[in-house]
Amino acid sequence: MSTRMLDVKDLAVSYGMITAVKGVSFNLDEGEIVALIGANGAGKSTILRTISGLEKAKSGSIQFLGKELTRLPAHKIVEAGIAHVPEGRRVFPRLTVKENLMLGANIVKESSIIQQRLERTYQTFPRLKERQSQLAGTLSGGEQQMLALGRALMTGGKLMLLDEPSMGLAPIIVEDIFRIIKEINEAGTSILLIEQNAFLALQTASRAYVLETGLISIEGNSSDLLKDDRVRESYLGA
Amino acid sequence: MSTLMQFLVYGLQLGSVYALLAIGYTMVYGIVGMINFAHGDFLMIGALSTFFLSQAFSSFAVNGTYSGLIVALIIFVAMVGTGLIGVSVEAIAYKPLRNRPKMSALITAVGVSMFLENFPRALPFIGPSPRSFPMLFPAKRFQIQGVMISTTQIIMIVLSLVFMFILYNVVNRTKIGRQMRACSMDKDAAQLMGININRVISITFFVGAALAAASGIFYASIYPQVDVYMGGWLGTKSFIAAVIGGIGDIRGAMLGGFIMGITEILATSVNSNLGYAIGFVILILILLFKPAGIMGKLTIDKV
Ligand SMILES: Nc1ncnc2c1ncn2[C@@H]1O[C@H](COP(=O)(O)OP(=O)(O)OP(=O)(O)O)[C@@H](O)[C@H]1O
Ligand SMILES: [Mg+2]
Fold first, then answer.
1. Does B96 have pLDDT greater than 70?
2. Which 8-state DSSP code applies to residue A21?
3. What does the DSSP 8-state code read for residue B150?
4. Are the C-beta atoms of residues B23 and B265 closer than 8 Å to each other?
5. For a disulfide at B295, which of A74, A78, B8, B249, Cβ 3.0-4.6 Å?
6. What residues pair up with A135 in beta bridges, in sequence order?
7. pLDDT grade, residue A232 (50/70/90)?
8. Which residues 167-206 of A have a C-beta within 8 angstroms of B?
């Protein structure tokens, strides 16, 4: 029996008059990769942004390792152990690759740990080491995605929230990125994954939730969902 | 030639005032994305509080001059005090509006400026009338190759360069500097790195206001008169300096400040009205030929 890592209950989030998330419940156990899939505007990014404190929940609760997150500011949530790789990567364009990574370790005080994580990150992404003194804004899309993942690794978070890591990348690079995501997971980091590419998401995750305009419509094991008619029709293009 | 050098000395002196003030405009713009129209008033607060501090320390003065240690203490207290006022202004007036349309913050800043000028004006022990600023720096003058230069000028220029050097290195080489640069590029991503952006913004206001105080002390040491409105037009000129240099860029603010100071002195020597106008002339030229300013890079504003 593995421990419950993330427990989201009846979460609702709105932007002014628009309610983007209308009471969503889901969970994730330690060591899992869980996917959230859904069409554009379904509310996937909003959920991740609320978990990491960038948006405020209107109602509902988010428990992470038994700790309530909904009232914590974003920087405290990072300290609690959540690393969010945001939609569109959001690397700091006019900082170097290395400076970006060092910002990932912003919450870490001991320089020996920072050094250790930097080495591990460079091992995972040798490309980042080659480019360490290059400005992040000049990297290719794939490299920026690697940097965003590397930055999240540097935080030392136990749970990674990945928002569309395949966005805008060539298939070969997507394959690369997803191989690394699985490696990161095997090394002990749990992952909540958002993906437009539902097939890829279901291949990577053990379980998935399907989000439709702010509500979860289907949930289950990935292998079951891959066979589900509604999923196949709406999200797998079959 | 020596007249030109003489103007250069005056220009650097005035330029250091503009540069120190321009830094605050540019840092706040770079990190918070707003133009703090009340920034010039921090200069006034710095100068006025120095006036009162030096009165409080008047028993230490010998023949109207203070020892270096006392002057350093007065300047330090005035800078820290003004810095804290800057932090409070942000916390009380600007922070609640941070996620509102930019226009709200702009209008608020105009209101804050009116408050900062008129509240002390209404206080009986401050009031509207100008005061004569004490001599903080020794008034020795030297002549080097026909160029007159005073100790005050040397101290001002050197001290402002030291402040700028420290600031530049803090921003580019320290952890808090890296956090500042991250916040200026992407506040959401900065928070996801565990950066407390409220803290970074407070520190930014502190530094900006403290440097504005230094700028006010320097200005009042050239033109030894202080009153509650002195921050207004000095603020405007320094804001122009920040735009000329490229708003958001610290080196740009420094460069813009010195360009403003030097050209103003040169233009004034030709015609005193031209001295007032030259800043605007340069501004228009810069906006025509390099709209983002000398150091600035044009970026698309995402709304
Ligand atoms: N800052 C905002 N202000 C107002 N409405 C917003 C904001 N961000 C998102 N929304 C709205 O909330 C809804 C959910 O958006 P969200 O970004 O969470 O969707 P998503 O599932 O991540 O979509 P995508 O696949 O396109 O990234 C959408 O209708 C969107 O228009
Ligand atoms: Mg999204």
1. yes
2. E
3. E
4. no
5. B249
6. A96
7. confident
8. none
Residues of A in contact with B183 (CB under 8 A): none
Please say if the pLDDT value at position A97 is more than 80. Answer: yes
Cα–Cα dist B142/A220, whole Å = 85
Report d(CA B252, CA A210) in Å as an integer. 50
In a domain, B35, yes or no: yes
Q: Do B175 and A93 touch (CB under 8 A)?
A: no
Alpha carbon separation from A192 to A22, A166, B120 (Å, rounded)? 19, 14, 56
Closest CA to B181 of B162, B192, B195: B195
What residues of chain A, 80 to 119, have a C-beta less than 8 Å from chain B? 83-84, 86, 90-95, 99, 102-104, 106-107
Domain that holds residue B192: 2-289
* Mean pLDDT score, A210-222: 94
Residue type present at position B66: Y
Give the 3-state DSSP-derived string for B199-242, with helices as H, strands as E and coil as C. Answer: HHHHHHHHHHHHHHHHHHHHHHHHCCEECCCHHHHHHHHHHHHH
Nearest to B181 among A79, A95, A104 (CB): A95
CATH of domain A4-236: 3.40.50.300
Could you report the per-residue pLDDT of B217-249, keeping only the tens digit for each? 999 999 999 999 999 999 999 999 999 999 999
Instruction: Say what the ipTM of the complex is.
Output: 0.95
Where on the phi/psi map is residue B216: left (φ > 0), alpha (ψ -120 to 50), or beta? alpha
**pTM for this entry:** 0.93
Q: How far is CA A55 from CA A21, A61, A74, in A?
A: 11, 13, 9
Q: Which two tokens stand for residue A69?
A: 């997150």
Is ligand 1 within 6 A of the CB of residue A43? yes
| B41: CATH | 1.10.3470
* DSSP per residue, B4-44: HHHHHHHHHHHHHHHHHHHHHHHHHHHHH----TTHHHHHH
Number of domains chain B contains: 1
The single-letter code of the amino acid at A220 is G
- Three-state secondary structure call for residue B168: helix
